[in-house]
Amino acid sequence: MNADCGPLHPPTLSAPTERFKLANFFDPDAPARPIRITLPSDTSAAGLRKHAKGTAFVLSDMLCGQVQRAKGLGFVDLVRQVLPWPLHKDIDIGAGGGCKSGELNIGMICSISIPIITLCALILLMIIVSLLDFIFRWIPWFIMCFPVPGLKGKPQTGGSP
Fold first, then answer.
1. Which H or E run includes 104?
2. 114 sits in which H/E element
3. How far apart are CA 87 and CA 98, in angstroms?
4. Mean pLDDT of all residues in the chain?
5. Looking at residue 40, what is its pLDDT?
6. How many CB atoms lie within 10 A of CB 13?
7. Tens digit of pLDDT for each residue in 96-121?
8. What is the pLDDT of residues 124-146, one digit of tens each?
9. Distance in angstroms (rounded) separating the CA atoms of residues 12 and 15
10. Half-sphere exposure of 26 (CA within 13 A, CB side)
């Protein structure tokens, strides 16, 4: 911008720039970043209870409608959908569309506790890998654990160290 030099030379402004928007944290177009998930060190009931529900998923009205329709499906519905003709049954997906409250389209925000979800996912992963190990015998290549000196779950109270 030029300085205001009076009526002979009014200030000059350039054309506006393109609107700026921050990218989402999980941007599919962003380069891949290494992810390291730290499991909770104190896995007692009291230790897990102290973690706040600090993560939320924001669901659009369309995704909210799909989640609501999926809640009504059972395991039998999913199995019958992939079976051949005599046992096949199509899944009723309804009219589609999003979640509504009267005439207003609404979305959802779902809050979860990451440490508890991480532990559940780890337990499920280990169960599935152990079952598949009967076929492939791959556990020695799947799990590599290294000792870390001085890493403790929670401080010891009383007694000798």
1. strand 104-106
2. helix 114-136
3. 30
4. 75
5. 65
6. 8
7. 667 777 777 777 777 777 778 888 88
8. 988 998 888 888 887 777 777 78
9. 10
10. 3
The 10 Å Cβ neighbour count of residue 103 is: 5
**What pLDDT band is residue 26 in, cutting at 50, 70 and 90?**
low
Tell me the domain boundaries of the chain.
Answer: 55-114
Return the structure tokens found at 112: 């979860």
Residue 17: C-alpha distances to residues 12, 13, 23 (Å): 15, 11, 17
Q: Which amino acid is at 154?
A: K
**Beta partners for 58?**
109
How is residue 31 written in tokens?
A: 């380069």
Cβ within 8 Å of residue 42, ≥6 positions away? 48, 153, 154
In the numeric block, the tokens 């589609």 are attached to 96
pTM of this prediction? 0.38
Query: In 3-84, which residue ranges form alpha helices assigned H by DSSP?
Result: 45-49, 61-71, 75-82
